[in-house]
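Thread title: Can someone regenerate the structure for this chain?

I was given the following input by a collaborator and told the matching structure tokens would be attached. They weren't. Posting the sequence so someone can regenerate them.
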Amino acid sequence: TARDGEDILCYLSTPPPSTPNTGALVLIIHGGPQTRDYWCYEPLCQLLCNRGMSVLRVNYRGSTGFGTKFLRKGLNGTVFTGVQDDIEDAALHAISNGWAKRDRIAIFGGSFGGYCALHAMTFKPNLYCCAVAICPVTVVGAAESAGSFYGSPLVKQYKRKLWGDEVFSNEAAARAVSPIFHVSNIARPVMLVHGEDDPRVPMSHSDRVIDDLKRRSKDKGNHCLSGCEYITFADEGHGVRKEKNILYMYDKVEQFLCRQLDLPVVANLEECWTHGNSATIRDMD
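Best answer:
Regenerated them for you:
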């Protein structure tokens, strides 16, 4: 139950009973935002549970499949407030129920889920030990200069309804909820993954986060880049679809999460499975 009394359906997957309870948990946040997670076989959940992590998938307000009233609760700017509260409340619920330890929670998401992951790292920097964001939205509304979907009027209408009039029209309001303008708050490692030909969320969304982290590292001489990773894939768009690239990506995601959650790191996947992938590991110096 969220802080305002709204019931939020989440799915918890746990490692095998023979596995020691390490308190490591990954929140997986679906994209959309108007879609949902289902209780079914999910390869990523199985992979992470096999490596000793619990997984909590959150059907925040605005997710589909729970009725029109619930869906509408995710419109008109609620994605920046109530939705983010739902995600935080799910993490706190996991801690209070003993499913996770406070210093061993990671957050993972793609597209809008990637926005939520970076929102968490910029606005709740002490709750999560790391984040993985795939093709993340990092700037929204009136603050977005690089258009997507070629300025389609239907998409603009949808975004206005989703973001709300203020964020859609007012640059200051949009900057206030766009992670790119709050990168200075990031204090824990992030892993970014992006398709180089993404037409929906241009790769510049991720590039700007990394560039800002690099600037901070040089200007202040701190270690904000320590543990961060950035991988891009040629010939991939909004998400990673080709089998060799998928296997390569999740091999790297698995290793990143294991390192940050202080779990045993498995060896690299055999090259025969990923040979011919189009990944580029971007320089973080």
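The mean pLDDT is 93.
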